[in-house]
Write a structure and sequence with these properties.
By secondary structure, this protein is mostly beta strands. It is built from 3 helices and 27 strands. Strands 1, 2, 11, 12, 13, 14, 15, 16, 17 and 18 form a 10-stranded mixed beta sheet that branches. The protein has a 5-stranded mixed beta sheet with strand order 4-10-9-6-7, with no helix packed on it. The longest helix is centred in the N-terminal third of the chain and has 20 residues, at 2-21.
Length: 425
């Protein structure tokens, strides 16, 4: 029995060995499998391609794998800002703008083309004179300062007035400029008893002088009167005589069109004034960008008046070499408005002074007419600027005026046969 079991175990082992010998051998590299042996079928998922993100690639967001969008992007910490070191450089030199410093220029012609005056201009004008009257109406027991100019523009007269000096007394007048320069002149007290010891210091700064506070002084060595006068630039159009060959339009509207008229003396007087001026020539000009215009013209011995684009007469102004007075501004060349009564001597844009008549104050009214509402009263000697008019009322010529303190209203130039307003410098 034992032998039968051993024989059966041996036969089973031999069968297993024979089956192992029949398995296929590995295929050498480069050789294909036999057709009769097919590889087992397998399913392999193809790897998902991740786009390569380069600087030149553009990938639509929908095509970016979800796994990539969920991964936080690591960013390098920002580099600390560098402090810029500025190398000092020399500031460039600025070239002045010509329009701010250059004055437009023109030449006045006296040829026959402009020898006929326009219809609105007079062919002849006469000297009307300026106001007078005593500055010291009563006698004073001792010298006293009666008035002084508080504010004025360059190229206009400023005054310090005193009374009560001895007739014929010698005084010293002194003006100290705002820059420290001084102007000194001798002043003689009037010998006339009716002047009651009047002594006046008059001074005119040139358009080239500085603006600011000037100190006026009148002294006899023991008594001194002082006053501070503020000089400013003109705030209205002005026509200045700079020399015997040049005129300066100043403080006009930029690019404004103006007319310039020249009159020559036809009848002189023993006092040196011209009693009758006759039209000679005229010309149109345009003001420069800065409101100024320099004109070459035969100024010496002639009289010039400008008429602005708005129709305002602007006579030329000239200061004498001694800084004591100015000339000009006393002739009217436009055809006047004729009212009943005396001849008008004023014009819009000109200066006037309340005439010395009887010592009483003169009224400034709301409108032309002696029955109109009274706004202000001003003393004799008050200086005003003519800003409007003329208008006729109550047999007089009325002008709108403005005082130095800013009061505005209407004043009669005359009443009956007496001038209440007179041309002033």
């Amino acid at each position: 029995m034992k032998n039968k079991i051993t024989l059966l175990f041996f036969l089973l082992l031999s069968g297993l060995m024979l089956s192992a010998c029949n398995l296929p051998k590995p295929t050498p590299a480069g050789k294909s499998l036999p057709a009769t042996i097919a590889p087992a079928a397998t399913t392999v998922s193809a790897p998902q391609r991740v786009p390569s993100l380069t600087n030149t690639d553009t990938v639509a967001p929908s095509k970016i794998p979800a796994t990539l969008t969920k991964i936080p992007v690591k960013t390098s910490p920002a580099a600390p800002a560098k402090t810029a070191t500025k190398t000092p450089t020399k500031a460039p030199t600025q070239t002045p703008t010509k329009t701010a410093t250059t004055i437009a220029m023109g030449n006045f012609s006296t040829n026959g083309d402009n020898a006929v005056p326009p219809a609105d201009v007079l062919e002849e004008v006469t000297y009307g004179g300026i106001g007078g009257g005593s500055d010291c109406p009563v006698a004073y027991p001792a010298p006293i300062m009666t008035s002084f100019t508080e504010e004025a523009e360059l190229m206009s007269v400023a005054e310090l007035r005193t009374c009560g000096w001895k007739p014929g007394q010698r005084l010293t007048g002194k003006v100290t400029y705002t820059d420290g320069r001084t102007y000194v002149k001798a002043i003689s007290v009037s010998d006339k008893q009716s002047d009651f010891g009047t002594a006046i210091l008059e001074f005119v700064p040139l358009i080239t002088d500085p603006v600011g506070i000037y100190l006026f002084e009148i002294s006899d060595g023991s008594v001194t009167f002082t006053a501070k006068v503020k000089f400013r630039l003109p705030d209205e159009p002005r026509l200045y005589k700079l020399s015997d060959q040049q005129l300066l339009f100043y403080s006009f509207t930029p690019r404004e069109k103006v007319r310039l008229f020249m009159y020559s003396c036809r009848e002189g007087s023993s006092s040196g004034y011209c009693n009758l001026w006759g039209f000679s020539s005229w010309q149109k000009f345009q003001i420069g960008e800065n409101g100024q215009l320099l004109v070459n013209a035969p100024v010496d011995g002639n009289y010039f008046v400008a008429i602005s684009q708005a129709g305002t007469e602007i006579p030329f102004i000239t200061a004498d070499p001694n800084h004591t007075a100015i000339y000009g501004g006393i002739y009217r060349i436009l055809q006047p408005v004729t009212c009943k009564g005396l001849k008008s001597r004023l014009y819009v844009g000109g200066k006037a002074r309340v005439a010395f008549v009887d010592g009483s104050k003169t009224r400034i009214r709301k409108s032309p007419g002696f029955s109109r509402e009274i706004l202000y009263t001003v003393p004799e000697g008050t200086q005003v600027t003519i800003t409007g008019g003329p208008k006729c009322a109550n047999n007089s010529t009325w002008w709108q005026v403005r005082t130095k303190s800013g009061q505005i209203g209407w004043m009669a130039e005359y009443q009956n046969k007496t001038y209440l307003l007179e041309p002033w410098r």
